[in-house]
Each structure stands twice: as structure tokens, then as C-alpha cells.
Amino acid sequence: MKSTKKIIDVLNESKLDKDRYELYSSFLESNLLSIDSETNVPWFVKIITIFGAWFGSLLFLGFLLIAQLLNSGESMIVTGSLFIVSGIAISYANKRNHLIDAFSLSLSILGQLLLGIGIGSKTHEIKIVCYAGLIIETLIYLFAQSYTQKFLSVILMPACLLGIIWNSPIFEATQFLIGGLTIASVLIWTNELPLLIWLKKQRYFYVPTAYGVVSGLLLTLVLSINNNFFEVNINHWYVSSLITFLSLSFILHKFLCQSLEIGKKPFWIVIIVTAILFAPTIQAPGVISSALIIILGFAKSNRALLTLGLIFLATFITSFYYSLQQTLLTKSLILMTTGILFLVIGFAFGQLKKKVAIQ
Length: 359
What we know:
There is one protein chain. The protein is mostly helical. Helices cover 77% and strands 0% of the residues. It is built from 15 helices and no strands. The chain has helices at residues 2-13, 18-32, 43-66, 73-90, 98-123, 126-143, 147-165, 174-190, 192-198, 206-220, 238-259, 264-278, 285-300, 303-323, 328-358. The longest helix is centred in the last third of the chain and has 31 residues, at 328-358. It starts with a helix and ends with a helix. The relative contact order is 0.06.
């Protein structure tokens, strides 16, 4: 009853009109206060489940190939399709049994691998494999009743789109894919409660979509890292950085102006400081995108988003540091200054959040 009182108190203090107040309060009482065993599983358990399913699927696939039980493209396509359908069907079983969820995920992953290898061996075209993959991931996302299956399908959809346009004249369109994922991440997380109400009868959609879009965005931005493993023909990364900066400005406006009710002048000072801070990394969009996820996690008090953003921020800053054509002393000064600035910004946001909590 304690949690119910806190939720009602928040609604009473909000500035909602009567219709929205009744809609939100009834939804919170009937849905958010109920315990969903799958959504309350610790994040590290879900990660172990995903990696365990991948590892088990690869081992079983290796056994099938070594034993030559699947020696033709047609047999791989048929078997893979059956495994995918079985994985989706089993996901409708008892949701409280995590062993069944892991088994259905393993079947789904194994089926996707077999289907991809089978289509690839028949067509010898990576684009056709990616087109098929995009269709399969869409079907899994729409029909599977498993958070982990939907989560992986959301991540793999951008990967399939990248495979379709890889090394093509329109590969620069990756910028708009990143921009779309950025905008989608912001809109999904800033409209969490309205979306949960809208999807209350399809409760398996919001959580995997919200986390999957963010993960897909950060993983796609790995392409912006300067490395010797693969060459990416994208020269204008500033387009992604500008889209991300506008999205970050939107979040800061909602957090500072609407939640904390600060004036326009302090808000524009924050925007100008943010622009100056991230201007040197305009060709490294991963840095500002990771910062966006951190601020989003901070605003939503979401530790998973904070952790994800911090891990990728460290990765992208390290890459940016090594790509600078400067002396080691200059690089060190830049890194130290950046670290101090982030500490000051983090301390400032922490004080603001304490102020809101007191109020």
C-alpha cells in the first residue's frame, strides 16, 4: 500500500486535467502495481540468458554441420524455419518458467542462423540474406511472446538494413538510420507512461522495444569508430551529431524547463555550453549519443540506461582520443578537461535532482 500512496501523491501534485488524471491513475493501479515475473528479472540474468542461448545454439549448429545432418541449403532453410516457428510457439507457454524462455530463445536463434546460412548458400548474396532477415525479425517482433526474442529482433533490424545498403551508393543513408533510432529512443522514453497505457493489452512490446532501440543505436554507432578492421565510406558524420544534438536539446528542455521549471535564459546557457562541449566531437557522433542516453537514464532514474550510456561513452571517447592528430600532452589535457567538465555537469544534475526530490 506504501507504493500506491506514493504514486497517487505524484498524480495529485501533477498538473493533469481530470480525464488524464483518471486514465493514468486507473492504469497505474491496475497494471504497474502488479508484478510481472519476466520484467522483474535482473538485467544480468537476462544477459546471461541471451549469451547462453547464443552459445548453446552455436554448439548445436556445429554438431549438426559436423554430423552432416544438414548437407544442403534446402534442408537448412526448412529446418531453420521450423525452429523459428517452434521458438515463437513455445514463447506462449508458461511465462514464469525461465528455462522455457531460454529454450524458446535458443530455438529462435538456431533457426535464424540455419535460415541465414541456407539462403546464403543458395543465393551467394548477402543482401538477399539481409532482406530475409528483416522479414523474419519483423515476424518475431510481432508474434513472439518473449521479451528477449523481441529485444534481439529490434537490435537485428537495423543490422539487416545496414547489410542491405552496405558498400552501396546510398550507404550515407546510415546517417538517417542513426538519426531515426535517436529520435525513436527519445520519443519512446519521454512518452513512457502514455505508451504503456496505449499498449496495455500488448504488454510484451514496450520494454523490449525501448531497450532494443537504444542498444541498436549505440551498436550501429560503432561504425563511426576509426579502426583498422573495416572501412566505412561515410565522411559526413556531423549529420548524425546534429540530429543527436537537437534530440538532446529536446530532452534538456523537457527536464529543465518543464520538470524543474527553470527560466529560458538558464536553459539557453545550458544549450550553448553543451554545443561548445561537444563541438570538437562533431565527427564522432557516438560521444554525444552516449551522453544523450546517460541524460535520458538520469532523467528517468534508469540504471540500465545509465550503465549502457557510460560503457559506450568510455568506448567512444577512447576512440576519439586515439584518433586525434595531436601530441600526447595535448591529448592528455583534452581528456582531463573533458573529465572535469563531465564531473561538474554530473554534480550539477545531481543537485538539481535533489532539489526536485525535496520539493
